[in-house]
Amino acid sequence: EEAELASADAELKIIAGLGRTAQREAAATAQIAETRAVIAEQKTLIERLTGCAIVTSDPIGGSLVLKLTTAVDATPAPAMATVNDAFAATVPAPPHDETHTLTVTFHPGTTAVKGAALTPAGVPIDDIVATVTAMGAAEANLQKLVAEVKVRIAATHARCEALGVLARTCPMDWSVSAAQIRVGLYGGAGGAVAAVDVPLEWPLNGAKCRVVGLAGLAPAVVAAAAQRVEASGYGTVSEALRATQDALAASGHVHA
Fold this sequence. Notes:
Radius of gyration: 31 Å
Strand content: 15-25%
Order of helices and strands: HEEEEHHEEEEHH
Distance between the termini: 122 Å
Strand order of the largest sheet: 1-2-3-4
Number of helices: 5
Low-confidence stretches: none
C-alpha cells in the first residue's frame, strides 16, 4: 500500500507539474498573441500616418524598411522656361508614380533616428536625415522623415527636368545634389557667369532662386546691379537670370 501511495503521489506531482507547465505555456502564448496584435496595430498606424508600407522591421537590430510610393506631378511650365525665347517650349513628362525603398535605422531601444538611406539612389536626402536625427526621440520623427523624403523625390524629378532643359540652351554647370548652379549669361557670350542658388526642393514648396554671385564683370557694375534685383529671389531660374541681365543693362553693362 505504501508503494502504491508513493506511486500515486509521484504521478500526481507529475500531472500537477504538467498542468502548471501548460498554464505557463498558455499564458505565454496569449501574451505573444497580444503583443503581435499590438505590433500589427502599430504597423497599421505607421502606414496610415506615413502613407507608406512596411516591408520589414527589426526591433532588435533597430531598423525599419519602408516602401514609398510618391505621386510625381508634371513639372510646372514656368520652371521649364528658358532665358532665350528663341528656343521652343519643352513639354514636361506626364504625372506618374515613383517607388523607392527607405531604410531607417534607430538608436538601440529608442525611436531616435540614427540614419536613413533611399533606394534607388539619386535623390539627395542627407540634409533631411541630418535634421531628423538632430530631433532626438520625438514621436513625429518618422512621419516627418517620410513626408519630407516624398516631397524631395517629387522635387528632384521636377528640378532635374527643368535644369536639364535650361542646360540644353545655355552653358551651365549643375548636379542633382548641389544647391548652387553656374550659368553663362547671354547664352555664354562675353564670359559672364552667374552663380545661382537653386534649392533642392525647387520648384516645389514656394522655393525661390537667387543669383548669389557674378564673375567676369567689373565689380562696380556687379554692385550696381545687385541693387536692382529682388533680394528674396525669383520663382524660376530663367526669371532670376533675366532679372540679372536687365539689372546689368540698367547699370551700364553692355555684353559682347
